[in-house]
């Protein structure tokens, strides 16, 4: 744009010189001032970085992936570049979902699908991610605007819709099936769905969609008092779905919508939401890149800094028909899956049993030399022996001091008789 504006200024200057009528010079001067002002504004706008074709581990200031690729060099992740192959859907771009989207964008995820129907408000400014100038924009549009500036390499798809409506649910299902980004086996077009919604109805919709598509997903939430939260991994058929173990208030038959009162809102802390979003994305990275242990359930209590964990098995009498169908499939495929797991374990044990060198090459050129044999020496001889004629004033610590044993005193019969006579004499007195 700067080049075009510079060319426009040169054309105006040339036009000004060719015009013989001086009355037109003032108009041309005004146009030149406007173009110069636009040029100054264009220079003040921050420039977006260009796309990076391939991830590199080169440690330079201009490489946005050098610190991420260091995970591969340090042996934490086998192949970090694979992150560009994955698609993640985030439902709910609020206090948790927006921060999770930013974290995944900075990590270089391949594709992000964003779902929300709400707009950015000034009441959202106590949270992270959104900015005051984005007030009035839809959350999905505002998120795309920010995330595309942070990392233009990420493919962003936004859906401004309510998934709890019939039309919204159909669009939601269709978008999850879309495999245009990377073809894969099965019906799903995404690798993971992250639920970051704030109500039970929306969670049940995500639960239904993932059960029907046999789609692995993670659920997250923050309490109304803003001092606790949780994340949960849900694998259809293998773990409990959201209908298997409903919240107590829902299981009691209370309508969630009746709990909200006018003029009363839930508390919200950016700290708690940031912690929950961090735990959620950390679990996502471990799941996608196959490192560490993926938590089936992880809670967070900010008041006591307590992180409870647990595992929840599916309910055999779950009210969700799709969940029951996934449970049957999981039971049928369990023998083959167990056999594959046992084979992988044996291969891992065999590879770990392979003899490795005593030491590996290192940048300090430190090596271990095992060619030197230590000569056996007489333990009785000591290298700290004193020259002839000198003696130690204190005993050696290695020598056992034998104390003199006093002679035993034997008591004869005569002594006993004498003692008896003395006692009798005393009694007689």
UniProtKB/TrEMBL annotation:
GO terms for molecular function: ATP binding; metal ion binding; UFM1 activating enzyme activity. It comes from the Eukaryota. Signal peptide: none annotated. GO terms for cellular component: cytosol. InterPro entries: D-isomer_DH_CS1, ThiF/MoeB/HesA, ThiF_NAD_FAD-bd, Ubiquitin-activating_enz. Keywords: ATP-binding, Metal-binding, Nucleotide-binding, Ubl conjugation pathway, Zinc. This is Ubiquitin-like modifier-activating enzyme 5. It comes from Protea cynaroides.
């Amino acid at each position: 744009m700067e080049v075009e504006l510079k060319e426009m200024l040169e054309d105006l200057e040339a036009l000004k010189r060719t015009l013989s009528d001086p009355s037109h010079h003032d108009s041309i001067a005004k146009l030149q001032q406007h173009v110069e002002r636009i040029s100054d504004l264009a220079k003040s706008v921050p420039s977006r970085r260009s796309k990076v074709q391939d991830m590199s581990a080169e440690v330079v200031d201009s490489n946005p992936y050098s610190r991420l690729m260091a995970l591969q060099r340090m042996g934490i992740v086998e192949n970090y570049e694979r992150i560009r192959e994955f698609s993640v859907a985030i439902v709910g771009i609020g206090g948790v979902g927006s921060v999770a989207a930013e974290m995944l964008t900075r990590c270089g995820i391949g594709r992000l699908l964003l779902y929300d129907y709400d707009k950015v408000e000034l009441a959202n400014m106590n949270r992270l991610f959104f900015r005051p100038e984005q007030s009035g924009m839809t959350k999905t549009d505002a998120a795309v605007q920010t995330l595309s500036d942070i990392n233009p390499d990420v493919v962003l798809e936004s859906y401004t819709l309510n998934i709890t409506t019939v039309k919204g649910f159909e669009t939601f299902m269709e978008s999850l099936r879309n495999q245009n980004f990377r073809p894969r086996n099965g019906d799903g077009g995404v690798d993971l769905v992250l639920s970051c919604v704030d109500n039970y109805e929306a969670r049940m919709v995500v639960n239904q969609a993932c059960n029907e598509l046999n789609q692995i997903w993670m659920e997250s939430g923050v309490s109304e008092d803003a001092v606790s939260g949780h994340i949960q991994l849900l694998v259809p058929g293998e773990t409990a779905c959201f209908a298997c173990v409903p919240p107590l208030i829902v299981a009691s038959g209370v309508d969630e919508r009746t709990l909200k009162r006018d003029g009363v809102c839930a508390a919200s802390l950016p700290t708690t939401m940031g912690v929950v979003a961090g735990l959620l994305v950390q679990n996502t990275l471990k799941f996608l890149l196959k490192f560490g242990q993926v938590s089936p359930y992880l809670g967070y209590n900010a008041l006591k800094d307590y992180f409870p964990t647990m595992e929840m098995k599916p309910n055999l009498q779950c009210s969700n028909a799709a969940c029951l169908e996934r449970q049957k499939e999981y039971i049928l495929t369990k023998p083959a899956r167990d056999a594959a797991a046992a084979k992988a374990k044996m291969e891992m044990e065999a590879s770990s049993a392979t003899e490795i060198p005593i030491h590996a090459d290192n940048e300090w050129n430190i090596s271990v030399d095992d060619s030197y044999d230590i000569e056996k020496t007489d333990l009785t001889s000591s290298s700290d022996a004193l020259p002839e004629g000198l003696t130690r004033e204190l005993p050696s610590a290695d020598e056992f001091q034998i104390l003199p044993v006093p002679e035993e005193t034997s008591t004869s019969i005569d002594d006993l008789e004498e003692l008896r006579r003395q006692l009798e004499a005393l009694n007689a007195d």
